[in-house]
Every structure is written in structure tokens, then in C-alpha cells.
Amino acid sequence: MKKVIIEQIGNIIMIALATCMMVYMIAHSYWHPNGESSFQFGIYGILFLAWLVVFGIARVVLAHTDPSFNSKKGELSVADEREKVISQHALRWTYYTIFTLLLIGFMTIPILSIYLNTQPVLFSQITVIAIGSILMVGFATYLSGWLYFDVTES
């Protein structure tokens, strides 16, 4: 169970930092037709890279301390048939959640942007935030599903 909690919390933090970095980059970067450009990642870019290093080290340590953890499979690493069943149930929950939220997002974001008469930068930021949020909810759904089915499958 520890491997799933570490992976999912690490993934949620990674997506949150990546989303913040992209929103900052959209707001503070530009590319003009004359060739002049500036890309700025800000503090979120530094935090994102630092988290990648810390999370990568944590995964390596976890792989050495937990023989059932495969760093290539991540949270889908299983120690036995029971964990495989739990993982399948949690993935089913995650699949339904992500696709439901994506359908809602695909319908809501364009309508919302037209209604609010948004600028392209704001529309891009809203889209990045929506996708990042959906991914974070997906990871949280997998974690909660895994914990739920771990208790009920006992």
C-alpha cells in the first residue's frame, strides 16, 4: 500500500507544479512574428525540476526497499493476485472519472470562453488548469479507489 500512496501523492504534486509552471509560462512568455521570443518558467519551473529529482530519488529508494515495487510500472506494480485485483478495480474507477471529467471539460471550456469573451492567453491558461486538475483528480481517484478496495477485498 505504501508504494501506491507514495506514487500517487508524488504524481499529484508533480502535476500541480507542472500546471503552475505552464500557467506562469503562458502568462509571461511571448513569441513575436519578427523572431523575438522569451520563455519564462519562473519559480514553478525550478520547483518542478527539483520535485522531479526528489521524486525520482524517492522512487529509487522505494524500489530498493520494497521488492514488489517496479519503478517502470510505478503504482501498477503488484506483489500478488490480490493487489492485481485491487489495482484493476481502482483503474476502472479512474477511467470512468477521467473520461467523465474530460467530456465535461470539452463541453464547458469552449462555451465558458465564448460566454466570458476570453483572450487567447486566458483561454490557454483555463485549458491548462482544467487538464491539470483532471489529471490530479485522476491520481486522487486511483489512490482512493486503491485504499477503498484494499479494505473491502480483505
Structural overview:
The protein has one domain. It is an all-alpha fold. The chain is flat and about 60 Å long. Strand 1 and strand 2 form a beta hairpin. The mean pLDDT is 88. Helices cover 78% and strands 3% of the residues. Keywords: Membrane, Transmembrane, Transmembrane helix. This is DUF2178 domain-containing protein.
Strands side by side in the biggest sheet: 1-2
Q: Uncertain segments of ≥5 residues (pLDDT<50)?
A: none
Distance between the termini: 13 Å
- Number of domain modules: 1
Total DSSP E strands: 2
Task: Give the number of helices.
Answer: 4
The structure class reads mainly alpha
What's the helix-strand series?
A: HEEHHH
| Helix fraction bin | over 70%
The average pLDDT value, as a whole number, equals 88
Principal-axes shape call? flat
The rounded Rg comes to: 19 Å
How would you sum up the major sheet?
2 strands, antiparallel
The fraction of residues assigned to DSSP E strands is under 5%
